[in-house]
C-alpha cells in the first residue's frame, strides 16, 4: 500500500506534465518524506522479521540435530541389544550392545540376514518363523509381545534372553525393530534367591525338629523299653522252662507292632527332614500326612496335657509334595502348642473337608483368636508374637509360600470363636 502511494506521489513530480507552485512543492516534499520514512520503516520491519525467522529455523535445526545425537547416544548406551531389520530380515541398524553381548562386529552383518549372521540357536529358529513363516491371523500373538529365548555368541555360549519384535510398515516398506535383553544376571540372581529360599525352608524344618527333639526321643525310647521288657520276659521264661507257644507268639506280635511304631516315627522323621523341593507332585492321602506329622509331636503334646484330635477315617487325596504339607502342618501345630501353654484345658483339632476341587484342612486350638492388628502382620517375614529366643517369625511366611507354590492359600478364619487356620489346596495341580 505504501509503495503504491509513493509511486503516485513521484508521478506528480513529473515536471514535463505539470508545474507546481511553492505550496504544492512543500506539500509534496512533506508527503514524500513521510512516505519514504514509512517505506524504510516497513523494510526494516520485514528485515527484522526475516532475521527472526531465520534464527528460529537455525535454532530448530540445532534442536533436531541435538535430538538425533541424543537418540543415537541413548540407542548405543542401552545395555540391551537393539536391531532394525528390513522386510528381508537384513540388518539395517544396530547398537553397540550387539557387539558386546554376541562378540561379533556389527559392520560385518550390516546388509546381511541376521539369521545367517549369528550362530544357530533357538532364537534363530523363532526369528525365522516370525519373519517368514507366520500366518497373518497369528501376527498379533507374536509382534509386540515379549518371550524368553536363547542366543549363542560366537564362542558357542548360550545366553538366556528376553525378545520383543515389532512390525512397522512405512509406505511400501516393512521394518522389524528387535529388542533383546540379556537375562544372564537376572537368571543367576533368581537361582541365588531360590537357593536362599530353599535353605531358609530347610533351616525352618531343622528348627521345628529341634523343638520336637525331646518328644521324638521319648517317642522312640518308650517302644524300645517295651521291646526290652518283652525280650527280658521271653529270656526269663526260657531259663525257667515255662515258655509256651502262646506266650511266645503274643510277645513276638507285641515286639513286631512296637518295631513298626518306631519305623513309622523314623520314616516320618526322614520324610520331613529331607530336602523335597524338587520332588514331583504325587497324589497322597491327607490323613496319612497328618498322622505321620503327629508321630513327630504326639509325645510332646501328650506329656504337656495337650489333646490332639483328628478323625483318621475322614480322608481325601490331594496332589502335593507330602514333605512340604507336613512342614506346614507341623508349624501350625507348634504355634498352637506355644499359644495355649497356659490354658488349663488344652486341645488342638484338625478337620478335613472337600468342596468341588478344593481340600480344606482346618487347624483349630483352644485359644480365643488372634487380635485384628496382629492378623494383618502375622504372615509377614520376621514378625512374631513369641518371646525372644522362642521364634524367628519365619514359620508362617514360609508356610504360606509353600502352600501358594501348590496353588493354594493359607489364611486365618477370623469368624471362628477359637484360633483357627485354614489350609486350602486344589485336589489336582494345573498342568503346564
Mean pLDDT metric = 79
Number of continuous helical runs: 11
Principal-axes shape call: elongated
**How many distinct folded domains?**
3
User: What composes the largest sheet?
Assistant: 6 strands, antiparallel
Count of β-strands: 13
**What is the class of the largest domain in the CATH system?**
Alpha Beta
Query: What is the CA-based Rg, rounded?
Result: 43 Å
- Unreliably modeled segments: none
Determine the CATH superfamily of the largest domain: Histidine kinase-like ATPase, C-terminal domain
CATH architecture of the largest domain: 2-Layer Sandwich
Amount of helix: 40-55%
| CATH fold node name of the largest domain | Heat Shock Protein 90
In sequence order, what are the helices and strands, one letter per element?
Answer: HHEEHHHEEEEHHEHEEHEEHHEE
Q: Kindly estimate the percentage of residues that lie in beta strands according to DSSP.
A: 15-25%
Amino acid at each position: 500500500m505504501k509503495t503504491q502511494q509513493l509511486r503516485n506521489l513521484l508521478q506528480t513530480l513529473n515536471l514535463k506534465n505539470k508545474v507546481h507552485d511553492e505550496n504544492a512543492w512543500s506539500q509534496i516534499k512533506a508527503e514524500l518524506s513521510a512516505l519514504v520514512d514509512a517505506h524504510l520503516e516497513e523494510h526494516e520491519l520485514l528485515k527484522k522479521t526475516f532475521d527472526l525467522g531465520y534464527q528460529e529455523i537455525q535454532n530448530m535445526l540445532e534442536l533436531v540435530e541435538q535430538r538425533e545425537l541424543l537418540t543415537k547416544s541413548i540407542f548405543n548406551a542401552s545395555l540391551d541389544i537393539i536391531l532394525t531389520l528390513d522386510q528381508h530380515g537384513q540388518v539395517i541398524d544396530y547398537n553397540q550392545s550387539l557387539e558386546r553381548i554376541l562378540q561379533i562386529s556389527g559392520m560385518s552383518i550390516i546388509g546381511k540376514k541376521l539369521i545367517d549372521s549369528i550362530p544357530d540357536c533357538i532364537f534363530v529358529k523363532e526369528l525365522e518363523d516370525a519373519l517368514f513363516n507366520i500366518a497373518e491371523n497369528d501376527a498379533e500373538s507374536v509382534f509386540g509381545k515379549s518371550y524368553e529365548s536363547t542366543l549363542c555368541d560366537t564362542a558357542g555360549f548360550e545366553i538366556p534372553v528376553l525378545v520383543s519384535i515389532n512390525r512397522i510398515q512405512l509406505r511400501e516398506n516393512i521394518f522389524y525393530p528387535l529388542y533383546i535383553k540379556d537375562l544372564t544376571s537376572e537368571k543367576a540372581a533368581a537361582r541365588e534367591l531360590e537357593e536362599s529360599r530353599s535353605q531358609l525352608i530347610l533351616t525352618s524344618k531343622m528348627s521345628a525338629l529341634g523343638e520336637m527333639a525331646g518328644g521324638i526321643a521319648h517317642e522312640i525310647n518308650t517302644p524300645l523299653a517295651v521291646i526290652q521288657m518283652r525280650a527280658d520276659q521271653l529270656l526269663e521264661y526260657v531259663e525257667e522252662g515255662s515258655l509256651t507257644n502262646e506266650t511266645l507268639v503274643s510277645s513276638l506280635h507285641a515286639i513286631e507292632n512296637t518295631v513298626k511304631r518306631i519305623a513309622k516315627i523314623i520314616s516320618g522323621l526322614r520324610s520331613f527332614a529331607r530336602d523335597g523341593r524338587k520332588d514331583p507332585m504325587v497324589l497322597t492321602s491327607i490323613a496319612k500326612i497328618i498322622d505321620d506329622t503327629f508321630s513327630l509331636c504326639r509325645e510332646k503334646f501328650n506329656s504337656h496335657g495337650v489333646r490332639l484330635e483328628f478323625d483318621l477315617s475322614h480322608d481325601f487325596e490331594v496332589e502335593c509334595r507330602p514333605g512340604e504339607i507336613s512342614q506346614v502342618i507341623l508349624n501350625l501345630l507348634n504355634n498352637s502348642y506355644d499359644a495355649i501353654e497356659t490354658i488349663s484345658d488344652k486341645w488342638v483339632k484338625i478337620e478335613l473337608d472337600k468342596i468341588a476341587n478344593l481340600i480344606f484342612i482346618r487347624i483349630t486350638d483352644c485359644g480365643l483368636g488372634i487380635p485384628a492388628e496382629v492378623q494383618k502382620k502375622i504372615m509377614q517375614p520376621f514378625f512374631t508374637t513369641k518371646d525372644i529366643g522362642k521364634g524367628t517369625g519365619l514359620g508362617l511366611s514360609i508356610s504360606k509360600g509353600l502352600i501358594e507354590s501348590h496353588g493354594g492359600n493359607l489364611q486365618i478364619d477370623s469368624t471362628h470363636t477359637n484360633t483357627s487356620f485354614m489350609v486350602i489346596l486344589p485336589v489336582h495341580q494345573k498342568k503346564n
